[in-house]
Amino acid sequence: METRIDRLGSVQEDKLKQLKQLIAESNNIVFLGGAGVSTESGIPDFRGGTGIYNTESGTKYRPIDIIAHDFFMTHTEDFYDFYKRKLIYPDAKPNKAHKALVRLEKQGKLKAIITQNIDNLHQEAGSKCVIELHGSVFRNYCMECGKKFDTEYVVAQPGVPHCDVCGGIVRPDIVLYEENLEHKNVDDAIKAVKNCDLLIIAGTSLTVYPAATFAQFLKHDRIVIINKSSTYMDLTALLTIHDNVGDVLDKCIPKRVNKPQSAAKKSDSKSKGSKKTGSAKPAAKKTAAKKTGPKKASEGKAKDESKS
């Protein structure tokens, strides 16, 4: 007797098969990811039940208020107290989601990763085509002279980190609330979405703008949503899967890295060329045989004439 669990399991398997098929028939895929992509690396999301916004900040201020521009400027010490404890995870490693996307990129199918995360895990995994909408905690700079610093420097400084050259405040190269995203990153993201033949949106509740609106630039409805909780696009997407991002991508993106089609064509043309070269030798022998044939015939004729 079929149970409800059996039916749900069957539906899930069908969805995974559908995603595999969509990936197989697409050659210009764009991935838009949020905090849920990195939760399996031990980095909490923001809006989940145990997310950053729903846990104690360790200060008298709300987390959502702390990571704002005005708060950073007026309560810099409180900002860094929270920032170092809650937003920096130097020991986090790429998970199955990051590694699966690297495979997809090497297969020539994934053209861009648009991420709202600031953890640098896509690059650490090996992805090359990453658009960081909100910056990275691994880049820091002096607000006075512009000197750049790594995360280790910031973490090692007690309280507010200061520049070792001019003494200015060092701030992380991330986009805080009340700050604008870099225009180039937004433009690059929109351009990638416009040109894609499949948009995979994963690990995001789609409540943060402008990323939440990127799908409107699509010229088709080939959208896949992978997220534990529901989003406003669940009913309009071509496919919606409520599950861990890492598990889904790892199952649906082939482990074997195939050559891109252009590389395969070049390889085929080379092999065909080598076959033609190999078959030329017997032809040369035949030509030589034909040339020696008439010579022998003329020699025979000369001998007959000498006899007569």
Characteristic terms for this protein:
10 helices, 308 residues, 6-stranded parallel sheet, elongated, 9 strands, 2 domains, disordered N terminus, disordered C terminus, 3-stranded antiparallel sheet, 13% strand, alpha/beta, Rossmann fold
Overview of the molecule:
- This protein is an alpha/beta fold and 308 residues long.
- The chain has two domains: 4-259, Rossmann fold, CATH 3.40.50.1220; 260-308.
- It is built from ten helices and nine strands.
- The chain has helices spanning 4-24, 63-66, 69-74, 76-86, 96-106, 121-125, 151-156, 183-195, 245-252, 261-307, and strands at 29-33, 110-115, 130-132, 135-142, 148-149, 170-174, 198-202, 223-226, 239-241.
- The strands form two sheets. It has a six-stranded parallel sheet, with helices on both faces. A three-stranded antiparallel sheet has the order 5-4-6.
- Helix 5 (96-106) packs parallel to helix 9.
- The longest helix is centred in the C-terminal third of the chain and has 47 residues, at 261-307.
- The radius of gyration is 31 Å and the shape is elongated.
